[in-house]
Amino acid sequence: MCLDRSIIISCPPELCFVTMSDLFLLFNHSLTAAQEADARRSLGISRIVTPPSDIQALWMDVPPDIGDLLEYLAPVSAWLSVQARPGDYVLIQGEFGATWLMIQEAFRLGITPVYSTTRREAVEKHLPGGKVALHHTFSHVRYRRYGV
């Protein structure tokens, strides 16, 4: 029986079915068109799943003054454990401690944690009064698996 969640090239139809992986987002921004296209091409993603608004709000605003991130992130872990399946991917980028904990949770759940690598370009503009304005432009390059 073929239960692999990647695309199956050759398998008798009576024994196999074709499935593709989903990409779950734990990410503070919207995906760019380049990130979405690369996820579909390089990871074999069929569906991109954004968290419900309450989960997204938790992820985007991790309070700096709390000590127990495990308790704070429990709803995020619960959402992933119910929605994602082994073989899926989760894009995890955000507050450092929360990111580390959710990477560990993804591995525990059999979900592959990834992050987006970028090319960064910075342009400095010197302003009156000794001030400097710094403008950053980020371009997606590829997805990279955590721990590899």
Describe the structure.
With 148 residues, the chain is an alpha/beta fold. It has a single domain (21-145), classed as Rossmann fold. The chain has four helices and five strands, in the order βαβααβαββ. It has helices at residues 33-42, 53-60, 69-83, 96-109, and strands at residues 21-26, 45-49, 89-92, 112-126, 132-145. The radius of gyration is 19 Å and the shape is globular. The protein starts with 20 loop residues before the first strand and ends with a strand. Mean pLDDT is 89; it is low at 1-9.
Architecture, CATH level 2?
3-Layer(aba) Sandwich
Number of DSSP E strands: 5
CATH domain class name: Alpha Beta
Q: Major β-sheet, in short?
A: 5 strands, mixed
Mean pLDDT: 89
Number of helices: 4
Q: Low-confidence spans: pLDDT under 50, at least 5 residues?
A: 1-9
Strand order within the widest sheet?
A: 2-1-3-4-5
Q: What portion of residues is helical?
A: 25-40%
Computed over alpha carbons, the radius of gyration is 19 Å
Task: Name the structural class.
Answer: alpha/beta
**Alpha carbon gap, first and last residue:** 29 Å
CATH topology: Rossmann fold
Percent strand equals 25-35%
- Count up the domains: 1
The string of secondary-structure elements, in order, is EHEHHEHEE
Outline: globular
